[in-house]
Structure formats: structure tokens, C-alpha cells
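Holo prediction. Input below; ligand is zinc ion.
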Amino acid sequence: MRILGIETSCDETSASVVEDGREVFSNVVTSSLKDHRKYGGIIPEIASRRQIELIHTVVREALEEAGFKLEEIDAIAVTKSPGLIGSLLVGVSFARALAFALKKPLIEVDHIKAHLYANFLMTEKQELPTLPAIGLVVSGGHSSLFYVKNFNHCILLGQTRDDAAGEAYDKVARILGLGYPGGPILDRLAKEGVNKQIHFPRAELRDTFDFSFSGVKTAVLVHLKKNKAPDESSVKRIAYAFQESVVSVLVEKSIAACKKKKSKTLLIGGGVAANSALRQKLEWRGREEEIRVFFPPLSLCMDNAAMIAGLAYHLRKD
Ligand code: KG4
Ligand code: ZN
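Structure of the complex:
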């Protein structure tokens, strides 16, 4: 079954053709990110206008790259939620119209679960995860832990009570005057700022799988107020200490969830899954605890339509 997936939940406009939930024939991703940079975050009005301008071209390119005509597609899949309403509306309206005109089924997909599904798409690494598993989704909008029985049955174990992990990265980068999005910038700087002098609090929130990242953001702000304007090397040290605080909580809660649910498989997804410290620390801890940890390839960590078309294959009713 060949599915055309469409993803327009935020600033990325993406379309992809995936066969049988596994084989990615094309995955075209474009983004209006550069139009938002000067504001330090995504402006919903700009994002939705750019979606309207880009959607036709992106879908056409995805079909061309895959080498299929619209008539050779068996179903259309689209992100239904969560996301920015204006951006979502563009993709959903486009997909509904396409499905109606082609008389093909329409499959509406949850964006968060699709991030976890990215681990099941075909990559060079041939080993596939098995279910049930624990799933950690960490992105600009979400930090959630799930017990994934199967993709029709995911139980939410915990989520952030305030900022999402990616949001905390973006806000701290803004406080430090580093630009947007903050995740990749702070990740790079942290590698050069290894130190033990700066320590930011870790919101362990015992006896729950919920997260909280607004405290560490405030701690960075207080640290900056107490100290003189940071030079380049102290910015790197702050980046390292901040990352240690966020990543250690993500790692330990995920491992604790695996233990509680007696799961030997951990799936990671979302933009923050690209973080080098998170990848490294989870691999170490996974090995210690004999838990298999799966990350999507970097290109499938960010928002993309391949994960939508892939998951749709398992949600179809035929
Ligand atoms: O999944 P995504 O593309 O969009 C949402 O659904 O939110 O995630 C974007 C988020 C941004 O907050 C960005 O700063 C963060 O992912 N991010 C990272 C890294 N790369 C992207 N955070 C930490 N380290 C990274 N290397
Ligand atoms: Zn996302």
C-alpha cells in the first residue's frame, strides 16, 4: 500500500510517499524557519501563509521524486493535531480535497505518535524495534512519555508541566542571545563547555513521570544576573550545565519508565532526539540496564511527512 503523507503542523511543509509503512520513496521537507528567525520564535500567522504558498510544490516534488503519479497512490495521510491551527488547516484542507477528488481514503494522524513511528521507517540500520515499548517524545512543543502497546494503543505516562524540552532550549538560547532555534546551537556549544563549576537544578519530580523545565531556564537567568556579562567561554559552560540538567532528567525518567513497565525497548522521537548528549547518554544507560534504545536518523527527528505516511499504514481501516 502506497501512502502520500502530508505534514504542516508548524513551520515545516513536508510531503512523502511511503510503501507499506516502511519504505520511504521520497520525503521532501521545506521550512519557513528563516522568516521567523528575527522574531526569536515561530510566528503562527507567517507560518500558515508560507504553508499555503509551499504546499502544492512540495506535494508535486514528493510525487516526482518517488516516481509515481497521483493515481498510483492508494491513500492520503495528513497530520491532524497537535500543532498551530492555521498551519494544520492548510495540510488538512489540502489532503481532504485531494482524497475527495481522487476518491481515495484519508487517514488523519497524530503528530506526536508519528515522531515515535519514525523509528520504524527503513534505514541503513536494519534492526527494527519491537512493541510494547516505552516512547519518549521531545520536541519544541512536547515532552511526553508513553507506554506504546501498539500504535492504536499508546498510554500517556507523563508529560511536561510547563515548558517542553525543545522550548527550554529555545528560550535559554534567546536569553543568551544565541539565535533560533536554540537546540542545535546550545548542543554544539555545550561540547566545548564541559565543566563542573556551574550546576543548574534538575527537576526530578519524584514519583511521577511528569517533567518540568521552566526552573532550569529561570536558574540560567538568575546565574546571568549574578555574574558579569558572559564571555564566549562562559556561554559554553552555561550551555553545558543547562544541557546536563535537561538531558539527565530525560534519560533517568525514560529508564525509570522502562523499569516500571518492564520494557526492554525505548523509542525516542522529536526534534530534541537529535541532541548529541541525549543520544550518547541514553546509549550508555541503555547498555547498563540492558534496554535497547532506538533513535530515528537525524533527518527523521525533525518534523517530516514520512513518519505521517508510515504510521498511517498501521491506522488504516481496510
Ligand atoms: O520536532 P520538531 O522539529 O518540531 C516540533 O514538533 O516542535 O522540534 C523542534 C525542536 C526545537 O525546539 C529545537 O530547538 C529542538 O527541537 N532541537 C534540538 C536539537 N535540534 C533541534 N534540541 C536540542 N538539541 C538539538 N540538537
Ligand atoms: Zn514535531
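The pocket of KG4 (ligand 1) is lined by residues 10, 139-141, 166, 169-170, 181-184, 187, 270-272, 274-275, 302-303 (CB under 6 Å). That is the main takeaway for now.
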